Amino acid sequence: MTIDRNALGFGNGAPAIYAADPWTSRGRLFPEATSPTRSEFQRDRDRIVHTTAFRRLKHKTQVFIGPDGDHYRTRLTHTIEVAQVARALARALRLDEDLAEGIALVHDFGHTPFGHTGEDALDEMLKPYGGFDHNAQSLRIVTKLERRYADFDGINLSWEALEGLVKHNGPLLTPQGEGTRGPVPQPILDYCAVHDLELASFASLEAQVAAIADDIAYNTHDIDDGLRSGYLTFEMLEEIPFLAGLMAEVSARYPGLETTRFANEIQRRQITRMVEDVIGVAQTRLKEIAPQSADDVRGAGQVIATFSEAMATTDRQIKKMLFSRIYRHPDIMRIREGAATIVKDLFTAYMNDPKEMQSHYWVDHITGLSEAAKARHVGDYLAGMTDSYAVNAHRRLFDQTPDLR
């Protein structure tokens, strides 16, 4: 993919005309005085970093459960890597880097303990009450569950940050009002009833680069963790032409390179090629669309920051390999089964006796709730747990706790 290097935003001054402008933000649900030292999107990013939800990410599973080793990614290290890639893309495309970084930092707030396993288990338990969706849970956290301010619940992010959080993977509604990926989660609909995030439009380009940065980061680091664990081998990587080419390139330049350095050289090339591919595609589409504002990006009717057709094929090949070789490996499936049991057992225990949540806030605020509201309250409590907290809570309540090793 060809890149116009003269158009890159490295030292080229002002943001592009299609970038989100923090000085003309659509504001916050609860109006606040502006800061004399920080833009609105800087304030968003800073608030996100100081949340309890952000700190909890360090003890939440990405793919491998914590006891597997200190060098495997957690939700926090994954989030930091996504933010780094998002910021690099934003700078190259002359976007607002603070908004792109903030959306990347907040995008996984709603994940449960034990990764997607925990989400699937909690969704099953909450099915009679509307189910569970980690993106909707992220919105609940930043608009309702964080308790840091005297004037409001949540952290009162800007409209642009919330829009990016909710729509970074694309519109949730068609122009006709139908769900693009099934029914829109109720928490998102409830919030939009009082603060419309325009679910039928695309998000800002800052949100789009955060979304594609997520794909780039986890494709790369899941390969790294897979090699470290032994579930992946270099021979398996050679089955994907793109990766085989990178391996041949490294081998030719560094014959006999030690395994760890060899893997790292492959991965940094992988990130570079994918980032450059996205930049090239985005530049081409920006020239075609010629947006004159961030709203023109939202109304473009297509994703602008995405992979080329060739790289999208590679992306699918990598995901297929990771799915078959790691995510569905018998060892991982056994651990996932145990993790799901922990989440389901805890949900049932707390529904039967809310006092077992052992927190004055969570116990006191469940009094008088309807059955559905009670289930959502318990779901909020469970979703906020770290892996270790969930395991310890299960050990306290049950005679036998699954071994997650």
UniProtKB/TrEMBL annotation:
Record-annotated HD domain positions: 75-219
Pfam family, one: HD_assoc
Record-stated family: Belongs to the dGTPase family. Type 2 subfamily.
GO biological process, alphabetically ordered: dGTP catabolic process
Stored SUPFAM superfamilies: HD-domain/PDEase-like
Domain of life: Bacteria
Source organism (scientific name): Allorhizobium borbori
Name the UniProt record assigns to this protein: Deoxyguanosinetriphosphate triphosphohydrolase-like protein
InterPro entries for this protein: dGTPase, dGTPase-like, dNTPase_2, HD/PDEase_dom, HD_domain, PHydrolase_assoc_dom
Species lineage: Bacteria, Pseudomonadati, Pseudomonadota, Alphaproteobacteria, Hyphomicrobiales
This protein's UniProt keywords: Hydrolase
Family annotation (NCBIfam families): dGTP_triPase (TIGR01353), PRK01286.1-1 (NF002326), PRK01286.1-3 (NF002328)
